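Help wanted!
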Amino acid sequence: MSQIKTEIIGVGTELLLGQIANTNAQWISERMAENGFSVFHHAVVGDNLQRVVAQFEQSAERSDVIIVTGGLGPTEDDMTREAFQKISNLEMVEHGPSMDKIEAFFKKRNSVMTENNRRQARMFKGAKVVENQVGMAPGMMVSHQNSMWVFLPGVPREMKAMITNTVLPYLKQHTGEHTVIKSTMLRFIGIGESRLEDELKDIIHGQSNPTVAPLAQNEGVAIRVTAKASSEAEAFELIESTKQQILSKTGGHFYGSDEQSLAEKVFGLLKNRGLFIAAAESLTGGMFMERLVALEGASKVCSGGIVCYDTKVKENVLRVSPETITQYGTISEQCAGEMAENSCSVLGADIGISFTGVAGPDAQEGHSPGTVFIGIHAIGKETVIKKCVFQGDRNTIRERSVIKGFELLMNFLEKEL
Amino acid sequence: MSQIKTEIIGVGTELLLGQIANTNAQWISERMAENGFSVFHHAVVGDNLQRVVAQFEQSAERSDVIIVTGGLGPTEDDMTREAFQKISNLEMVEHGPSMDKIEAFFKKRNSVMTENNRRQARMFKGAKVVENQVGMAPGMMVSHQNSMWVFLPGVPREMKAMITNTVLPYLKQHTGEHTVIKSTMLRFIGIGESRLEDELKDIIHGQSNPTVAPLAQNEGVAIRVTAKASSEAEAFELIESTKQQILSKTGGHFYGSDEQSLAEKVFGLLKNRGLFIAAAESLTGGMFMERLVALEGASKVCSGGIVCYDTKVKENVLRVSPETITQYGTISEQCAGEMAENSCSVLGADIGISFTGVAGPDAQEGHSPGTVFIGIHAIGKETVIKKCVFQGDRNTIRERSVIKGFELLMNFLEKEL
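Answered by r_m:
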């Protein structure tokens, strides 16, 4: 097994002032580990030419692959190019296609490109340009002396796409790194981390390849299964067999693998059944529907939603009966039921979900913050209503309501429809 | 003004595997900045004696204060003590009170103390012990050659208490550092980073205290103004006067300071004017309204919203006229206008905002992804409609639409109402 020494340098004074955490280094490290590269150092240095140069000199001595994030922007604060030029003496040239892209960006917005934006198209001679598919400024990879240097923007979204689409494939191809480390996340809902760990303790302690580790997540709990092997196929087999062992013990709570979200799971169930969904959202304020509309192809499953934060909207638009509201209040099983039912008829959907409750910080209608009713109605089926009590601040309660809504909906779709 | 060069080293392979982010370095950096210490480097190194020693040697050369977190635990993985002994040749002795505490800890839990736990009570001769008030193992501060070394556990809760209660007071007392550093963020929308820098270049280059630095943000651009002074009051005055200079040049785009979001700004404007808002959201799917409902007191400004992802909902619930849709399409100025106007009447609000456009990935009604119409209507005022063209993937386009909506609304509220 070759040992490629990798190092990740973050350039930016905002990191040294503690305004942001170095999550770029974390994310890149995870990807590198998955692909069999050893990261031996993280370093952070501010927007100061002398110190960036000193850092680069040191990194060049100790590492084979050096990934630098940040310091590539258009302003004079951005030192990465200048610093690398000082240690490499490589000539810089303007990269035509990148310059065209930058100019087009400004033209499309009808805004004037200032001269300093040209800096972003400057590349070291002989560098491989790393195309930025989600932003404006490109990155680059340069081989210098015994190291491979990778320069990427500090914006996480742009950096991530560039690592995934270009840098990792290139590094794997050019370093002869052939150990494969594969990881999969198995995602569970409706079961706590300690209970899951307890049920799986024989599997967790009984083997070292794959390793099995439970992780608390925003949406339920995940189990990370990580296998080392000499080929993808072998790693895949190792993972698959452990996955089957795990699911045989806890399958009922399993909802998906890897990056699959609960929203995607529900989206798939709706799509397979050809069902359109509507939502009536009070305390969640549109968060539920927004998670579905975020997914490509939303028009195949989403009718629409009504954010009925105001009681008048519950009555006038959602047509919840005034008697229900007078007799039981808006935070009630009855109101949640009518909201779910009427969302179907008003919005022309097959299935409706409703959220009404107290996000806080103040109590409402005699209910303390965290009291939430979630209703689900499918045409021709009995309406299901669940009363929940969540802990946490306003937005935690809102977030947990939405997650619970997806969980209930998943179970409802799998069992009832 | 003295310039104490500080450096923060995290020891632990879990950081290099990306299992956790280096939030310790962020937190310490923030505290150091507030207290006038300049942090020039972050470094992370794994549980490997040789590499920890190499890192320590390098840090000793460049920094006055070196704060090391992690690697102090009881297992053989924990290298921090051994590494420092290698570079300092300082003798290690068992610290009686710390050993007593460790023994008491195990006795209290009725568990057996293994021999390796003794390691945690070992201190360098002459070190100041940093008591751990929320955990078991102590930290220490050691003066060696020209640097002050601070060793702390990696557990954030323990490390934080030790920094606050012991390390910072000690450092301030022993370094004669009485400088206060205060920072504020001024937030702008509707102006690019390079244009803002261009307008402010005299201010940016003309002064060193406060420093003025532009930063790209998710919501527009921010300017960070950072002042060093000998008192809070003096720092505040310096910042205030620079802020006035900046606003006199770019005030029209300014929307808030520090952590204020655009949604909060708009929320405040609505509340001050006693206005209720409604939203008609197609491609944004509820994201706009969800940002407002996330704020405490949302019931004072939010009527509600309609997520009209489906054309039928635009017609049946929002009552957009079928002629408009047939003649101009749903992605049109006309449809956006009716959506904004009707959201007011249907939801009983004073002001309505609408979003209709193509999130992608596919084109729609002959418009390419990123084409978005945003409408704003206030009762008794002419409806305003803005056509935008955004770059990026589906969710970037949706996110940018919402941010643009808040920007337009802010301008509308400030100028028209």
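OP: Thanks! One thing I noticed: The two ends of chain A are 51 Å apart (CA to CA).
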